[in-house]
Amino acid sequence: MATILWIIAVLIGIAGVVALLRRQILWGIILIVVALLIGPGGVSIFNV
After folding, report:
1. pLDDT of 1-48, one tens digit each?
2. 10-to-2, 16, 45 alpha-carbon distances in Å
3. Which of 8, 14, 25, 36 has the least C-beta neighbours within 10 A?
4. CB 46 within 8 A of CB 5
């Protein structure tokens, strides 16, 4: 399960960076924050 969450978080994070590069600042920030919340890197919302 952690591997799947990690992959999803990476994909969302990449989408956030791409959005920032396309000058969609708000959308990029939201995607990066969601990636940090989903990812198993210590801040995951699924490890309650």
Report:
1. 778 888 888 999 999 999 999 999 999 999 999 988 887 665 666 655
2. 12, 10, 15
3. 25
4. yes
- Alpha carbon 32 to chain centroid, angstroms: 4
CA 28/CA 48 separation, integer angstroms: 26
Q: Two tokens at 34? A: 């969601």
Only one residue has tokens 């600042």, namely 25
End-to-end alpha carbon distance in the chain: 14
Residue whose pair of structure tokens reads 């940090």 in the numeric block: 36
- Pair 31, 19: CB distance under 8 Å: yes
Q: Looking up tokens 């959005």, which residue turns up?
A: 19
